[in-house]
Amino acid sequence: MKKKAFALFFAFTISLSSSVHAQSTPSVLTLVKDNLQYHSIQGFSEGFSTVSQYTDKNKNREVFGLIDTVGNEVIPLKYHEMSNVSEGYIRVGMDIDNNLNTCTQGSERGVDKWGFLNTKGETVLPITYDRAEDFKQGLALVGTKYEYVQKPIAGLPSTTQVGYKTGFINKDGKVVVPLIYDEAFSFSDGLAVVMKDMKFGFVDRSGKVVVPLIYDFANKFSEGLAVVYQNGKAGYVNTQGKVVIPLRYDSAQSFHEGLAIIRQGEKNGVINKQGKVILQPTYSSIYDFSEGLAFVFQSNKEMTVKKFGFINATGKVVIPLNYYNASPFSDGLSIVRTTKGIDGDSVIDKSGKIVLQYPNNTLEDFKDGFSIIGNYSDKRHNLSDTFGMIDKKGNEVLPIKYSSILQNDGYIIAKEQNGTSTIWKIK
User: Fold this and answer.
1) Could you tell me the sign of the dihedral formed by the alpha carbons of 241, 132, 60, 47, in that order?
2) In this structure, are residues 219 and 211 in contact, taking their beta carbons and an 8 Å threshold?
3) What gap in Å lies between CA 264 and CA 267, rounded to an integer?
4) Are 187 and 206 in contact (CB under 8 A)?
5) How confident is the model over 136-181, as pLDDT tens digits?
6) Are the CB atoms for 193 and 177 separated by under 8 Å?
7) Rounded to an integer, what distance in angstroms lies between the CA atom of residue 80 and that of residue 109?
8) Which candidate, 187, 152, 179, places its Cα nearest to that of 163?
9) Long-range interactions of 64-71: CB distance < 8 A, separation 24+
10) What is the C-alpha separation between 273 and 293, in angstroms, rounded?
11) Which of 9, 12, 166, 293 could cross-link 342 (Cys pair, CB 3.0–4.6 Å)?
């Protein structure tokens, strides 16, 4: 289960306990390269990973470059920000005015101009944009900066603020959606959410407004439908801009596996893409369907007691609400908490059977047959976070000794406590 999915907890031992005793397993990993000397490695995407290193002992400045899957440095570490590869392009940022306090986008400290490289390190779009996001569906959001005066609020003086006019470019750098919007989000199902004058709508890849900017808020399209809000109510539009599920819910989520979570008052239910109610608002919370099941929980009014279980696509409870936490099913398994407090995690299958138990450890969702297993730090005893990896039978793939582990694109990157990293390929 993702670290943020649970309340903060600590483990005081690195011993591994399991209902299936962890044993050495025939190697499923091939060592690619060890002793990599980088501060951070982001994980592989399209055969490459962004890496970084500090340039000064005070750690004020990081520089970024790119390595391939055998650990070779293919782009030198000279950029002040760099994203992973997306559709063959790499977004990079530079501190052109050499001022760490100047920041034009998000939390990227000091970066004031953005551009794009290819995986050979060649500049394919110049580093001239005030704002840029990764390419998605062949287009990238870019923006130009402007300043405006914020009117006095609650007796505070007026201030000068920075905003952006955003639009989209193609891979040749041609502007296909004009930079006229106050905000925009990446394309999904061929359409992008845009906002102007606090109203939301959608444009297509040519910049044509398909869904007029009349809504108070809108989410990205998913499975051909998008959530929109107006006058405090939520519903759904299709890719032609037609309202196909009326705006009558207090809140609504995007569709997954043909189903969406809706909320009325304090309770959540489920509808299908025709707007039919599959499950009346019943639960305190319902999470998106994954592998045919969704986890739900009920709580008391004070939210001090929560119990988690799972429903199927008809809304029927198939795994009773007996758990203190749960994660979506992945690889046919879910990570659950069977006891209240700081105890560890268990693994259940889709019948609800507990197949693995780790009373002193935490687990991340299974992915491609593996789960990252960890002990989180107890500063009172000077213990650091440590992580390892197990397979679906509980066999140890990597020992619990690393400061971090990443798994992407068929590779595993593990960082040692001394700061060096190792790359393995999954067989």
Assistant:
1) positive
2) no
3) 6
4) no
5) 999 999 999 998 887 787 777 888 888 999 999 999 999 999 999 9
6) no
7) 9
8) 179
9) 64/92, 66/90, 66/119, 66/121, 67/36, 67/41, 69/32, 69/44, 69/409, 69/411, 69/423, 69/425, 70/32, 70/33, 70/423, 71/32, 71/33, 71/36, 71/423
10) 17
11) 9
The C-alpha atoms of residue 60 and residue 48 are separated, in whole angstroms, by 26
Q: In what order do the strands lie in the sheet with 334-337?
A: 325-326, 334-337, 345-348, 354-358
For 324, the token pair is 């203190």
Report the distance separating Cα 388 and Cα 380, nearest Å: 22
pTM here?
A: 0.85
DSSP string, 110-161: T--EEEEE-TTS-EEEEEEESEE---BTTBEEEEEEEEEEEPPBTTBPPEEE
DSSP letter at 62 equals E
Residue with the two structure tokens 């140890």: 396
Q: How far apart are CA 187 and CA 151, in angstroms?
A: 33
What is the percent of the chain where pLDDT is above 70? 87
Chain mean position to CA 421: 23
Six-digit token string for 51:
């890496």
CA distance 312 to 128: 50
Strand 362-363, strand 325-326: pairing:
unpaired
Structure tokens at 132: 């840029």
Note whether 227 and 252 are within 8 A (CB).
yes
Are residues 146 and 165 in contact, defined by beta-carbon separation less than 8 angstroms? yes
For 273-378, strand residue ranges (E) read 277-283, 285-286, 293-299, 306-312, 317-323, 325-326, 334-337, 345-348, 354-358, 362-363, 370-375
Q: What percent of the chain has pLDDT over 90?
A: 77
Determine the 3-state secondary structure of 279 from DSSP. Answer: strand
Q: What are phi and psi of 325, to 5 degrees?
A: -165, 165
3-class DSSP assignment, residue 287:
coil
- Which residue has 């039919």 as its token pair? 276
CA distances from 306 to 262, 324, 349 (A): 20, 6, 21
pLDDT in tens, 257-269: 999 999 999 999 9
Q: Phi and psi of 380, rounded to 5°?
A: -65, -30
pLDDT at residue 384 in the model: 65
Q: Is there a contact between 400 and 383 (Cβ–Cβ < 8 Å)?
A: no
Q: What are 92's two structure tokens?
A: 């990079």
